[in-house]
Amino acid sequence: MLTKRIIPCLDIKDGRTVKGVNFVDLRDAGDPVELASAYAEQGADELVFLDISATQEQRKTFASLVKDIARHINIPFTVGGGISSVEDVAPLLEAGADKVSINSSAVRNPQLINELSKAFGAQCIVLAIDVRKIDNTWIVHTHGGKNPTDKKLFTWAKEGQDRGAGEILFTSMDHDGTKNGFAIDPLSKLHELLTIPIIASGGAGSMGHFADVFAFAKADAALAASVFHFGEISIPELKEFLKNHNIPVRL
């Protein structure tokens, strides 16, 4: 059986790691290089690094910071933020990233998923989908969650898979930073709908929440930020807890 992955997320703004609630009220969470190094040592399975203001500020992700982080870790590493073309990806992979995450640019130009998958392989392409529930429908949002779109979660996720995305990073904006648990229902439906791995994001507040998202939503990986950044949950203790709940993890 494939082991479930634990993935700390480093949201970067102005070169610092930040964390908010429902995508707003950001507070400083530390130096991204130091955090990345610490998480690798603690047994994180992967890292995700999102330059959260790159799209809004219409600039590219900082390749130099990617290179600095990559020098300090020995685990797979996904980078996102401001990626809008095939040409944007190669410098990030050369800097040390293993995968890239696309979000707003893919909504704007879905053909980008096809182009990136063809150029670099599906295993390299993570389609990030930020959603909020509006009138009982999970609506896709872009630009760091600021702009609602006409896309609905399940049809967009299926289209992303069909176009060549190798993984879906699902974030419920309604759950983000609340520490009330992951969005189990939509994650369960995504599991039934898709054949590619799903990373659950938004809402982790306890070790039980991680167990629930693996046991009930069948997520392949769980991503969290503040509970790791501020020392509320340690990765070694979390993995031991999951193992004791019969959830396969890499110790």
Question: What do these coordinates show?
Answer:
The chain is an alpha/beta fold and 251 residues long. It has one domain: Alpha-Beta Barrel (TIM Barrel). Helices cover 35% and strands 28% of the residues. An 8-stranded parallel β-barrel has the order 1-4-5-6-7-10-11-12, surrounded by 6 helices. Helix 2 runs parallel beside helix 3. The radius of gyration is 16 Å and the shape is globular. The two termini are 15 Å apart. 49% of the residues are buried.
Q: Count structural domains.
A: 1
In percent, how helical is the residue content?
A: 25-40%
Name the poorly predicted regions.
55-59
Instruction: Please outline the major beta sheet.
Output: 8 strands, parallel, barrel
Strand content: 25-35%
CA gyration radius, whole angstroms: 16 Å
Superfamily at the CATH H level? Aldolase class I
Strand order of the largest sheet: 1-4-5-6-7-10-11-12
Write down the CATH class. Answer: Alpha Beta
Helix segment tally: 10
Shape: globular
* CATH topology type: TIM Barrel
- Category from helices, strands and their pairing: alpha/beta
Number of strands: 12
Arithmetic mean of pLDDT: 90
Instruction: Quote the distance from N terminus to C terminus.
Output: 15 Å
Give structural attributes.
12 strands; 10 helices; single chain; alpha/beta; TIM Barrel; 251 residues
Structural topology:
Blueprint: E1 5-13, E2 16-21, E3 24-30, H1 32-42, E4 47-51, H2 63-71, E5 77-80, H3 86-95, E6 99-102, H4 104-108, H5 111-120, E7 125-134, E8 137-142, E9 147-152, H6 153-163, E10 167-172, H7 184-193, E11 198-201, H8 207-215, E12 221-224, H9 226-229, H10 235-244
Parallel strand pairs: 1-4, 1-12, 4-5, 5-6, 6-7, 7-10, 10-11, 11-12
Antiparallel strand pairs: 1-2, 2-3, 7-8, 8-9
Helix pairs in contact: 2-3
